[in-house]
Write a structure and sequence with these properties.
232 residues; alpha/beta; 3 helices
Length: 232
């Protein structure tokens, strides 16, 4: 092979190696962003001059998007970065809409932004995860050994909390592996803050309720499970 041919072969190999390196770097970035989208708080926007399509298998909920028509873009602000989702596809303004529209998946993750959420959410599937804006963030700091008080975690900003108010989660089929993580539970008009209903002759197995702030009520008022002819 001539000297020019050898040089050309070396250049081709170098270009291929650089291409492979770029692919691996981009793939790693997407994975990191996916984790960030789920376990970092966001703000919902109705408009933005610049945005990137959000790369996540999750669907997103924010009641700030109520005025946006289906098929239009909804925007999520994470820090200084803005991403876009499609209303009615992977962006909704209520939790029940997101769960109903995306029913039938082998697993469903719903990331909920700031605002107040009420009504009824029907669980029809296994492996449903509802993540509030502070999913994965403990509500409290460590117990003070002197005062025996557990102060609220200052990382959780009240304006960014996902508030469940008089929300009913109803199991209308046998369901396993349902997680509710990172919400603030409040009540209105003397009603229960959060109720889990289990339909007659159905069961729910391995329901996880964690990292949720209970405000202004007792534990029984905050989380009440009602069932008839079921196992839980």
């Amino acid at each position: 092979m001539s000297k020019s041919g050898k040089l050309l072969s070396v250049l081709i190999v170098c270009v291929m190696l650089l291409s492979l390196t770029s692919v691996f770097c981009v793939a790693g970035a997407v994975q990191d962003n996916t984790d960030r989208f789920l376990y970092s708080p966001f703000q919902g926007l109705t408009s933005s001059k610049f945005s990137s399509p959000i790369q996540s298998n999750a669907v997103f909920v924010c009641n700030a998007w109520r005025g946006i028509e289906d098929g239009a873009k909804a925007y999520l602000k994470y820090g200084n970065e803005v991403y876009s989702a499609i209303k009615g596809v992977n962006a909704f303004d209520t939790i029940s809409q997101a769960v109903d529209k995306c029913s039938g998946r082998s697993s469903l993750c719903v990331k909920v932004g700031p605002g107040n959420y009420t009504g009824t959410v029907n669980i029809n599937d296994n492996n449903v995860t509802l993540l509030g804006n502070y999913a994965g963030v403990c509500p409290n700091m460590e117990l003070d050994p002197v005062t025996c008080v557990m102060p609220l975690n200052p990382e959780r900003v009240s304006d960014l909390e996902s508030n469940m108010t008089n929300l009913h989660v109803t199991y209308v089929k046998n369901s396993c592996n349902v997680t509710i993580d990172g919400f603030k539970i409040t009540k209105d008009d003397g009603k229960t803050g959060f109720v889990m209903y289990i339909g007659t002759n159905y069961s729910c197995i391995n329901t996880v309720f964690q990292n949720n702030i209970v405000s202004g009520m007792s534990g029984k008022e905050a989380f009440l499970a009602r069932a008839s002819g079921t196992s839980a």
